[in-house]
Amino acid sequence: MASPLGRATSSPGGSSSAAILLGKQFKQMQTDTDIRGISVGLVGDSIFDWEILLMIDEEQDNLYGGGCFRARIAFPDSYPLYPPKMTFLTPMFHPNVYQSGEVCISILHPPEDDKYGYESAAERWSPVQTPETILLSVISMLSSPNDESPANIEAGKLWRNDKKEFRKRVRKCVRDSQESAWD
């Protein structure tokens, strides 16, 4: 049975090459014991929609450490040729996260030259990226924001000009994430 989007709905894996690849990657992430602090599940029964919980280690990140951040990754039917979208469901204050929660990071931008000349094609999406590399890049992004072209202008300005206030806002996000992580 197919959904209106042309996605198989009879099983989480479906039968398209994208669904088969995502099924393997999903299973790998669920069984890999080397990936600390990342939990993945499906939203409903679609292999194209993942629910993520990032539990940031306090020792690795002194800003977002201790946070439990929920997110979703929506993969297109054209995966792995085109990138998914990742959106934080937990409110996130970060220069590279839009107020809507959508993550703005180079590897999630389509594999083409940037029309503004900011990023080269080599910095953007490539089919060698996996859900694991995406999540590891996002975790890295949390502790090392790119403030040259911020998605959240207020967060970018505070990161550059008022680190104390930036840290205060981030720590509030962390506390809030801890309180709502298991809701």
UniProtKB/TrEMBL annotation:
CDD domains: UBCc_UBE2G1
Pfam families: UQ_con
GO molecular function: ATP binding; transferase activity
Membrane spanning residue stretches: none
Keyword annotations of the record: ATP-binding, Nucleotide-binding, Transferase, Ubl conjugation pathway
Keyword Nucleotide-binding: yes
The organism's place on the tree of life at top rank: Eukaryota
Domain UBC core positions: 17-179
SUPFAM superfamilies given in the database record: UBC-like
Active site, per annotation: 104 (glycyl thioester intermediate)
Family under the similarity heading: Belongs to the ubiquitin-conjugating enzyme family.
Protein name from the UniProt record: Ubiquitin-conjugating enzyme E2 2
Organism from which the protein derives: Hortaea werneckii EXF-2000
Lineage summary: Eukaryota, Fungi, Dikarya, Ascomycota, Pezizomycotina
